[in-house]
Amino acid sequence: MNHYVFLALLATLGTWSATALGAATVLFFKSTNTKLLNLMLGFSAGVMIAASFWSLLQPALELAESSCTLPAPVMVAGSFIIGALFMWMSDKIVSYMREKITDIPEQSEASDNRVLMLILSITLHNIPEGLAVGVAFGSLQNKAHGFEDLMGAITIAVGIALQNFPEGACVSLPLRRENYSRRKSFLCGQASGLVEPAAGVIGAALVISVTKILPCALGFAAGAMILVAVHELIPECQASRKEQPYLATAGIILGFAVMMLLDVMLG
Fold first, then answer.
1. Rg of the chain over CA atoms, in angstroms?
2. CA pair distance 223, 218, nearest whole angstrom
């Protein structure tokens, strides 16, 4: 294995570990605390909205400006819409298949669809992040790189790892809310980050071609995340709005602010 591909693999195993640590927060809940889970759902929605811009759309626009012939805003906006449509179609397909295969109560069906959409959106989000880390390390082979170039690649990996911690919780905590066991919630949460090592290796090995595709992948993932955050997480976290009018809203604002700080300070 190429030296730089191996470095990309190690870096993305680190980013996956951060996802697993975030998912492990669900293990501290012995019983379902509705207020806390609503707060965390709101936090997750804020994280996803902020990450969609600073982690995905903004880098996509910058990359598209330098690597694409089409106008960058048009290409990224198109990818964004396609990502949202993909999640919408996925929801429709899952609903259709459930109707054909088995009789599941409507409430349970909606709950399972929401879980599948959440896991899929975070997994899609992790693919371009893994590619980004792989590209950062793979590109070192084509440079007369020094300590600064290496530290730049490491900084990207560390930044994504810090972002992955709340994203792991984004999956495991909503699963716990849907009455999944703590163990199953954790396993699903950490599994959403397993695509990053594979994507990192691919990104490092095909750095030249992947760099051209990356803006579309980033925009696609952003569209998927925004649809899930706005259509699923925000309405769900506001379920007990009458009892706690601003609890979930505070979680959304806090999650957005935390992710914005991480992205801007480490970007």
1. 19
2. 9
